[in-house]
Amino acid sequence: MAQYKITVNQELLHQLFLGNNKDSGVAALLESVLNQILQAQATEQLKAEPYERTDERQGYRNGTRPHPLTTRVGTITLNVPRFRNGQFSTEMFARYQRSEQALMLTLMEMVINGVSTRKISRITEELCGTEFSKSTVSDLCKKLDPIVKAWNNRDLGEMDYPFVLVDALVLKVREDGRVRSRSAMISIGINTEGYREVIGLMLGDSESEASWGEFFSWLKKRNLRGVDLFVSDDHRGLVKAVRTHFQGVVWQRCQTHFIRNIMDVTPKYIREELYPHLQAILDAPDIDTARLLLNQTLETFEKKAPKAMQVLEMGFDDATAVLELPVKYRRRLRTTNAVERVNEEIRRRERIIRIFPNRESAVRLIGALLMELDDKWSSGKKYLDMNEYLQWQKEQKQSSIRRDIAYAIC
């Protein structure tokens, strides 16, 4: 990564620390730093400072052009260098602005389609200029859509994904002049290096078995492999699709949803009494202990909460599947909380839109946000240390082979 020497004058520091509007001070500082970086990049590409005479020079400067950039501390103006041969380029801001570009494009589409509020119209005019046309929006979409599409359809065959978490959230999309509910199906995989990845986003008509089946078929076509554990809620269509398309893969029922399902059919006066028993079952150190606690709980509450005990008994095996894994992996794989947090980030943007003008805008906005999360995860800390799991998996396979040999001999 390139390193740049940045200078900050005393006036900027005074505005930053002593000014009345701290955001304006940060914006001024950010503007100064980024413009210095742009000039440094121009020097790198030309291999010469301004007015420097050198045999290595690759071209000549031709002034700058102003470029407004909307940030979280306000709009700043970048002085983008121009070259006589027109070859200056920078990717410095594109990666971190995708989700905000997608959000703005969606708002603009709403204005053009006549379905936005006056507030949204005012926001887009302030950020994008007083006028924008369908052709302007179309040109901007052509730049962003291929990036999101290429990322969302990338090949997954370079890595195994032992753990996969899936969930969906319902969005409102305008189609054929009517507002319809559509499901955004999202999948997060944890690869053998221990990093999280968003491995798929698809907009379906519903959360039916057919929609989830299409989603899983698409993941398999993109070479999703090495899956050992699926984690999701107990949506009937989802679970059927998992068992159809990933036969032999263990399914872990989200324990948060499981407890909620039990509590929904538990009489209010014993909910506080029952909850610690449920938590003890799910926190058990091994499956034998969990089953012992299950039997004790069933015996204690069978007459007080028969429906709740029926849900508990029927869902016990799926909700405790994670107990077969080494202890250090259970906490993060027993619920869909990792996906739920992603959904919360999506909802923050979706509340602004409320109704997407079309399917493409929904995929663009959600996809751009997921790309940024993916970039953050891949450059951050590992989500799980997979060494112990990989060793455990190897031992499990060897044990299975020994059992098969013993059975064949017998």
TrEMBL record:
Keyword DNA-binding: yes
UniProtKB keywords: DNA recombination, DNA-binding, Transposable element, Transposition
GO BP of this protein: DNA transposition
Any Pfam family hit: Transposase_mut
Region (Disordered): 48-68
Residue ranges with Basic and acidic residues bias: 48-59
Listed GO MF terms: DNA binding; transposase activity
UniProt family annotation: Belongs to the transposase mutator family.
Role: Required for the transposition of the insertion element.
Name of the featured protein: Mutator family transposase
Native organism: Thermoclostridium caenicola
